[in-house]
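Table S2 (continued). Query chain:
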Amino acid sequence: MEARKLLEPECAALAALRALPVELAELESLLAKADAQASRGEWVQTLDCDFHVTLARATRNPVVCAVVEYLCHTWFNEESPWKGIKLEGLERPQRLAYIRKTHRDVYEAVARHDARGGRTAMKRHLARFLAD
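Corresponding output:
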């Protein structure tokens, strides 16, 4: 988690400066899919990973993208030591609502091309994650 907290806020800031309309549309589509799943009481973790990887692609930096892809795929791998990650003090429905809201906050800052806002929103998104 430490590597994600170090890298992903800067990734969001850079994406805010470089994201193209097609990437913003893809991020918005991922948010809509997550909302639809949540309305059915479902959650597919690959959407979470896809959000972070799409954001990394928007940086136009292949090294940042490769590292975020590696971190996300490691994070969500069935054998991952972080499989039991939780959000401090939140049960599953609230946890998923928190993830969706903070993803939306990151997206909105990136869509405004607000690097500082993107960085802050991503820090907030990642701040509550703790390992069991």
